[in-house]
Design a protein that fits this description.
The protein is 20% helix and 44% strand. By secondary structure, the chain is α+β, with helices and mostly antiparallel strands. Strand 4, helix 2 and strand 5 form a beta-alpha-beta unit.
Length: 246
């Protein structure tokens, strides 16, 4: 007959058994910050913050300069009557490779945080992350050269002023890289002055893993009559279990 031996595992050791597979999620919540956002989330934040910026500086709504993710053909068809517009696109996206001290980062996701599952105290949640480096281009299009220059400087100042906002909303890092050569574009019968700003944006993919905590393990071993039990301390009831192979 099987003889049960119970082993108690202290929960502080963090011994876990996996109950959920590791899977990518775009915006899972971390206890130490807001929702982690990827590049599309960043572009949404820029559009929202730019509206807030114009509103704070009392720009009449009729004169607001929109920020759009549009390419030239769509731009010509939709904004021929618009005097100014800002277009953006992603130039490149790659894995964040080096640490601050020059060491190469591992290709696998790195541990970010571990905490009790707020929905089930018997579970523990592990968040891992992988950073991405994104090169983003903002093009200021205006029918007037002077206005294009003004908007380029205003937008650069706006991005600098709102870095705290982007990072508080789940973007890892944003910084100005360069302003490229000014140029002129002809679309239909319209001449546009274009000013191009380049930014590096670090985002992070968050992975969530839910594990089940173990508070007790039961080991069963069929030893029959060969199981030997020796009392080590009668006061505490401490016993030693062994196999009599004689």
């Amino acid at each position: 007959m099987a003889n049960p031996i119970k082993i108690d595992i202290d929960r502080e050791y963090g011994l876990t058994i996996r109950s959920g597979a590791l899977g990518a999620i775009a915006r899972d919540h971390s206890k130490s910050g807001d929702y982690s956002k990827d590049i599309n989330g960043f572009l949404d934040l820029v559009a929202e913050a730019w509206e807030d910026f114009q509103n704070r500086y009392a720009v009449p709504a009729a004169n607001w300069v929109p920020v759009k993710y549009m390419r030239p053909k769509e731009f010509v068809e939709s904004f021929e009557s618009q005097a100014n517009v800002i277009l953006f696109k992603v130039l490149s996206r790659k894995r964040h490779n080096n640490t601050s001290d020059g060491e190469r980062r591992p290709r696998n996701a790195e541990l970010r945080e571990q905490f009790d599952d707020p929905e089930d105290d018997n579970n523990i949640v592990t968040l891992s992350g992988q950073k991405r480096e994104n090169i983003v281009e903002f093009e200021i299009w205006s029918k007037h050269s002077k206005k294009a220059n003004q908007l380029a400087l205003e937008f650069e100042g706006f991005m600098n002023a709102y870095v705290w906002y982007f990072t508080s909303k789940g973007i890892n890092r944003v910084w100005f890289e360069e302003r490229k050569e000014d140029r002129v574009e002809i679309t239909g019968a319209t001449e546009w002055s274009v000013r191009t700003l380049i930014y590096q944006v670090t985002t992070e993919l968050i992975y969530k893993e839910t594990d089940r905590k173990l508070s007790q393990i039961t080991v069963r071993h069929d030893t029959g009559s060969k199981l030997k039990t020796t009392v080590i301390n009668e006061k505490t009831g401490l016993k030693e279990h062994s196999i009599d192979r004689g």
